[in-house]
Amino acid sequence: MAKPLERKDRPASMRLPESDDALIDRAARALGRSRTEFVREAAVRAAEDVLMDKGLVRMSGESLAEFIALLEQPAEAVPALVDVLRRPAPWDTHSDDWQ
Asked: How many domains does the chain have?
């Protein structure tokens, strides 16, 4: 007898007010996604954000001292960034200057 295929995806179900359901469908359509894709992506992104905010970084006393020493060093200029920051803002230039 053939072995049944194992499903890697698991169903998720939730009850939503009609207004929330309509809003989700509208947003999903705006992005060209299905409701399932939209909700899954939004839920995963929210879960990652929560876990990143709650993440605990552990390090030895020596590593912490090295990290603090790096943070206390004077900043070094990045030439390309300095160049960009010295340019006038687009709203401060005339429109005929743009090419």
From this structure: 1
